Amino acid sequence: MWYIAVFAFYLLFIVWTCLKSLKNVESMSDFTTGGHRMGLFIGVGTSVATWVSVASVMGVPGYLYSSGVAAIIGWVAGWFFGTALIPIVAYKVRRPESPAKTFPEFIHLRYEPLKKNSQLRTLVAALMLVGYFVFTHLQVVGFGIVFSTITGMKYEIAIFAFLVFLLFTSIGGFWSVAVTDTVNTILIILGVVLGAVAVLAAAGGFSNIYDTLAATTAPTVVGGESLSKGVLLSPVGTFGLGALFSIFISNSLGAAVSPHWVARMLAPKSIKVAIMQMMISVVLLIAIFVPLIIIGLGAKTLIPSLPAGQTTDYIMPLVITEYAHPLVGALTLVALCAAAVSTANSMLLHCGTSLYYDIYKNIFTSKTTEENSKKHLRYTVLALGVLAVVSAIKPPVLLAMGFTYVYGGFGAAFFFVVYLGLYWKRMNSAGAYANIIVGTAVYIIAKVLGATNPFIIALAAAFVSVLIAVKIGKKAPLEAYEPYFESEISSSTKKVISTIQDDYAQEENMQKTASGSKEAVEG
Amino acid sequence: MAIALLIWVATIAFSLICGTILCYKVEKSKVKRWGYSGKLFK
């Protein structure tokens, strides 16, 4: 009863924020980068909210439950190391007076600034489309698991409720996303802290949990293979050293160059705000991950094996519903559901804008009105949402591992494109093509062939190909690298940047005019 | 378990040290647009 009541209350809150958001006129720039004016407080809030997704809140306790403390190295330390590397990107990418607004625009400006239509930008957008679609799919899976736990519906039916949320939240703008993200983050921090206290009390304290982890051989799922004694306290757990290192490196190096994190670093009002935003986020994230570690490890004491047919992604909702007070459980699970929906919506918007603005409009340059563009973008987002739900009926991978695969793919494709692009003047478009094509291809091949360390193999192959391509390719023009190395730039570079960014400015102005006229007519 | 926790703490320490060095470099640049304020964490 508590669960349904809290869920209904939360749904009303979502509808209210979305309807209120309709009254505000917001531009695409406000939505993506906050117009490069974001302050420290909001920046910390959005960064923490970005880290809090179903992979961290449900996937990590799942792996702690099945593989033990090794998951702390693979995912928790991996993501924290990635968070440490992101300011190194911010230190350079936020230098220009007129920074890029999106990741594909950054690629266009850094590598093909003299071209009106950049093929590299289209290629990057296509990879982003695939990566963010997988991220969306994972959020829908997480939503389905929690929603089926709350309502008792079958998972295959529960995932379709996501579409109802999508309809409501897709009409909301930046304001509604910011408000719901903040509320979700507060709910999740509250929920995981109270949940950890409940699990710790039910398990009989930390020493009892430690003793269980040292002695248990209970299989992860009823009827499965028994665990070796002590494996859950081993630093490599059930993974093995090579596989664990691969997970750690994919999660850290991949996350640091993921397009959504690079875009996040474009939003703050200065380089220093961007750096401090990540430093404060790291401290706040400790408050979320310590309780998650207690819940994941403590669950092994309370539920030695999962019921047959359930994956480890179910452990978080299962242990919360069984051992926390119904109100605490309801708040936590509703927050998990909401985090999945808000993250999925923002990922769907990444997919939609990549497909529509960076691929379709970059290839087909015919002029359409802004109203039509907005309509097409909305249809694209809804169609991708339906596809994500259908793809989630039979999820092929676990939540946390799904994130690791995508981060590995992004890292293989973009690591040198981002870091060498920002720190090496000679990095040119040939080098960028080499990194993206060779890195992606080798990563996929190594993965298909079952290599233990596909990310390292792909990164090594990409590095060699980048060096060869830079050596034989055309020298990067001054306009490409100057904004990232000098505080004052030449007039030719200024002209090139404004030419590329003008298209966006024109679209924004058209959007504002269209919204203004609509309001005037309605008024 | 101690090894896993130590590695995690090391990444946290690295994050804070790396951020501090970058803030110092911004201060040293004296470029206001980049965040120069005369104080390391302001």
From TrEMBL, chain A:
<feature type="transmembrane region" description="Helical">
    <location>
        <begin position="405"/>
        <end position="424"/>
    </location>
</feature>
<keyword id="KW-0472">Membrane</keyword>
<protein>
    <submittedName>
        <fullName>Sodium/pantothenate symporter</fullName>
    </submittedName>
</protein>
<keyword id="KW-0812">Transmembrane</keyword>
<feature type="transmembrane region" description="Helical">
    <location>
        <begin position="455"/>
        <end position="473"/>
    </location>
</feature>
<feature type="transmembrane region" description="Helical">
    <location>
        <begin position="431"/>
        <end position="449"/>
    </location>
</feature>
<dbReference type="GO" id="GO:0006814">
    <property type="term" value="P:sodium ion transport"/>
</dbReference>
<dbReference type="GO" id="GO:0005886">
    <property type="term" value="C:plasma membrane"/>
</dbReference>
<dbReference type="InterPro" id="IPR001734">
    <property type="entry name" value="Na/solute_symporter"/>
</dbReference>
<feature type="transmembrane region" description="Helical">
    <location>
        <begin position="64"/>
        <end position="91"/>
    </location>
</feature>
<keyword id="KW-0406">Ion transport</keyword>
<dbReference type="InterPro" id="IPR038377">
    <property type="entry name" value="Na/Glc_symporter_sf"/>
</dbReference>
<feature type="transmembrane region" description="Helical">
    <location>
        <begin position="38"/>
        <end position="58"/>
    </location>
</feature>
<dbReference type="InterPro" id="IPR050277">
    <property type="entry name" value="Sodium:Solute_Symporter"/>
</dbReference>
<keyword id="KW-1133">Transmembrane helix</keyword>
<keyword id="KW-0813">Transport</keyword>
<keyword id="KW-1003">Cell membrane</keyword>
<comment type="similarity">
    <text>Belongs to the sodium:solute symporter (SSF) (TC 2.A.21) family.</text>
</comment>
<feature type="transmembrane region" description="Helical">
    <location>
        <begin position="230"/>
        <end position="257"/>
    </location>
</feature>
<feature type="transmembrane region" description="Helical">
    <location>
        <begin position="278"/>
        <end position="303"/>
    </location>
</feature>
<dbReference type="GO" id="GO:0015293">
    <property type="term" value="F:symporter activity"/>
</dbReference>
<feature type="transmembrane region" description="Helical">
    <location>
        <begin position="6"/>
        <end position="22"/>
    </location>
</feature>
Automatic annotation (TrEMBL), chain B:
<keyword id="KW-1133">Transmembrane helix</keyword>
<keyword id="KW-0472">Membrane</keyword>
<protein>
    <submittedName>
        <fullName>Uncharacterized protein</fullName>
    </submittedName>
</protein>
<feature type="transmembrane region" description="Helical">
    <location>
        <begin position="6"/>
        <end position="24"/>
    </location>
</feature>
<keyword id="KW-0812">Transmembrane</keyword>
